[in-house]
Every structure is written in structure tokens, then in C-alpha cells.
Amino acid sequence: MTPQKDKAFAFRALHDLPGMFVLPNPWDAGSARILAGLGFKALASTSAGFAASTGVADYNITREMKLAHVRQLCAATPLPLTADLENGFGHSPEACAETIRLGAEAGLVGGSIEDFTGDAARPQYAIAEAADRVRAAVEATNALSFPFLVTARAENFFTGTPDLPDTIARLQAYQEAGAHVLYAPGLQTLDDIRSVLGAVDRPLNVLLGPRAGFVPMAELEALGVKRVSMGSVLANTAYGALVHAAEELLGPGTLGFLKAAASGKDLADLMAQGADG
Predict the structure, then answer these.
(1) Cα gap 116→158, rounded to integer Å
(2) What one-character DSSP code corresponds to residue 54?
(3) Mean pLDDT across the chain
(4) Where do the H-state alpha helices sit in 119-163?
(5) How far apart (Å, rounded) are the C-alpha atoms in residues 221 and 152?
(6) Do residues 44 and 24 lie in contact, with contact meaning Cβ atoms separated by under 8 Å?
(7) Would you say the C-alpha torsion 115, 64, 151, 39 has a positive or negative sign?
């Protein structure tokens, strides 16, 4: 098994090297090994994808469940793993710090902290409060013997107010609080992404690309985006294939879905490659 410290330095190097990398999101050990076998350099967990695999909707997973899940993912491949740690599983800065510490113990080399409160009446923490939470998370990494990258997320376009100036102000505050990577999922246009890139000096993660019209990865790289994650899209695509296959069986009773199926041997070979690195 690849030592955690080696994974940590490999993950940091991906952020330091020129260019962009794609960070796909497995939802179980098998999908993690398949993605590793296909040649990706690092992986990220998906809270929504994992939740679906347990039969519940997003934000219905406990911290204990998430930690058990990331242990499995960390052990599945030799690749670095960063995790979607939601809002740190608590409102206080201390809760965020503890979640980061426990995530590192579970094998992670990175993790994200959202500014989403879970309260519909107040969807996002005030900027100063959110920055304090990020600061505590970063300080928790300083006690580790390896680099652990904290990604600070501004959730305006997902669960708060789709306000680009406020999003930028939040990301700048999180940058000042020490965040290693910045992330505002759901930015609407390429111009939004350009505006964020011009306002911060930390690596920027984007989700797929602008929501108003997804573009090839090369266009995001040309803008200066450092990494692109997939969120729950890969899990949703796999589950979508299951739904379509089941609907075909229940409807016409045909087997046309088999045309898109991978063979058991191909999957086994990919998972073996992913487990070995």
C-alpha cells in the first residue's frame, strides 16, 4: 500500500505543476479502482454519490459513515484521495478542525469545507464566520506530518444566493484564512470562471465547467483552472444506465442496454490495474 505521506506529496505536486488535472469522483471501491485503472492521477469522494449508494439523498450521511467510506476508498487504490466533507459536520470551527483531523486519520490527503449551513432560512454562514471555520480546518492540518490540502467552498450558486461578487468576496476571505484550494461549484459562465480566477491567487477547482454550457476540459485549462471535479455526475451516469436498463426490461422486455455494458473481464482487469497502481 502506498504510504499516506507519498500520496500527500503526489497530490500537492499535481497542484504545483503547470496545467490542469481532472479529479473524478468514485462512489465505492470498485468505481475507485476502475478510475485508477483508467489512468487518473487522484480521486475525490462524492457525498451525493455515496449517499445514493446507501439508499438515501445527499446530506443524510453522518460523519462516522463518511469516515468509514473514505477509509475504504483510501485503501482501494494507491492514488491520493480528497473528500467532500460537507460543512465539516458541525457549525463550529472546532467541528471543522476535528473533521479534518479524523479525515487525515482515515487516510485522506485533502478535504473540502462548505459554507452551506443546512438551514433554509440562512443558507450560508456569514463570511467572517465561514472564514473562521476554514482557518480552523487549515490550522488542524499544520499538526500533520504531511501536506493536507483544504479546499474552501463558496456555495452561493448551489444553495445560497447566485451572487458572483459575494462569491468572490467569500473566496478571497477563505484564501486569507489559509485555504489551499478554492471552489465555487455551479459557476454559470466562462466569464464567471474568469472573474474568479482574476480575483484569487490559489488553485481553483471547478465543477464540470460553466453550467450555462459545458465545455471541453481543454478550454478550462486554457483559462487557468487547476482542477475539474465531477461531483455526483459519474455516479448519476452509472445509476442512470441502471434505470434505463430496468425500464427496458419492464417495458418492451428487450436487451438493447447490453450494447453499452462492459464485460466482466474488462472490469476485473481495470480494477486489478487500479488496485496495483
Answers:
(1) 9
(2) T
(3) 97
(4) 127-141, 156-159
(5) 20
(6) yes
(7) negative
